[in-house]
Amino acid sequence: MTTLTKQPDPGLSARAPRKSRKRGKPSDGFRGIGDLKVALFFIAPAMVGLILFYLVPTIRGIYLSFTEYSILGDPEWIGARNYERIAKDPLFWNALGVTAEYVVINIVLQTALALGLAILMHRVAKSTLIRGALLMPYLMANVIAALLWFWMLDYQIGIINQIIEWTGLPRVAFFGSEQWAIPTQALINTWRHMGYTALLIFAGLQAIPNSVYEAASIDGSKALNTFRRITLPLLRPVLVLVLVVTVIGSFQVFDTVAVTTAGGPVNATRVLQFYIYQRAFNEQDFGYGSALAVILFLILAVVAFIQMKFLRGNQSDLD
């Protein structure tokens, strides 16, 4: 007895893939175009802000640096004369030296203290409340933090000087002394930012696998040797990021100086950013102020490039 089996239509099977392919191609294309439109929609506000508040002012500032410009008149092209004046300006070199002193003190103290706090958070302080409390100074505005410490360190009524006097030591003019003014302001900003910096380093510590420490422990490595040979090398990308961000922020210090010493005493705290403000807005010399701002921009670009290049911030020993 012969069993008849129904065979599939070869024409139908040949046509089916072509039909599905015709439906698939437009679908994939439309989906790609749709994703691009959605991405552009979300990126557009940030791009508009970047262009309006960063790119356009930067280009205009570079142009004004080659002009003599007061707000009451039109810009007059003078070429590189502003930059020639900067090279011979003793106040500029003083401001650059004061800024460099502030940056060195702030970077060294902030990085060292933040690294210690991060290790304590990683090894000892497991409470989220304690870790969150470290961010409280950072959540405070710079002006408020500066005024708070300005009153606490006041020579006459400041509680810090009263405590110093109770111990039998003479009062210290923290903001009125050429010797103490810049270190005091560096310490204020270190106090405000070290919690945030510690959290960045703490995140880098958590990314280091425990197996590395376990292997070092099996080999008999001491704690200090483990920190020097394992923790620090593996933290290098995070530490370089912290250094770049901190150096850029330190070079741009302004509000702490503006509300406490206003550049005094005797130009001891006239940092570069404050000097730019004085020349541009107090003296209405926007061309010269723009040239100073361009010089500051170039300094920051060179410093950031050197840090990333020689500290190998884009490389990790975990790879």
The whole-number mean of residue pLDDT values reads 86
What is the CA-CA span between the terminal residues?
71 Å
What level of helicity do the residues show? over 70%
Number of strands: 2
Question: What secondary-structure arrangement, pairings included, does this model have?
Answer:
Blueprint: H1 10-64, E1 67-68, E2 76-77, H2 81-87, H3 90-123, H4 128-133, H5 136-139, H6 142-152, H7 159-166, H8 181-206, H9 210-218, H10 223-234, H11 236-251, H12 255-260, H13 272-282, H14 286-310
Antiparallel strand pairs: 1-2
Write a compact overview of the structure shown.
This protein is mostly helical.
Give a description of the structure:
The longest helix has 55 residues, at 10-64. Strands 1-2 form a two-stranded antiparallel ribbon. The chain is globular. The N and C termini lie far apart (71 Å). It has helices at residues 10-64, 81-87, 90-123, 128-133, 136-139, 142-152, 159-166, 181-206, 210-218, 223-234, 236-251, 255-260, 272-282, 286-310, and strands at residues 67-68, 76-77. It has 319 residues and is mainly alpha-helical. The protein folds into 2 domains: 22-64, no CATH class; 83-310, MetI-like (MetI-like fold). It contains 14 helices and 2 strands, in the order H-E-E-H-H-H-H-H-H-H-H-H-H-H-H-H. Helix 1 crosses helix 14 and helix 2 crosses helix 14. It is 72% helix and 1% strand.
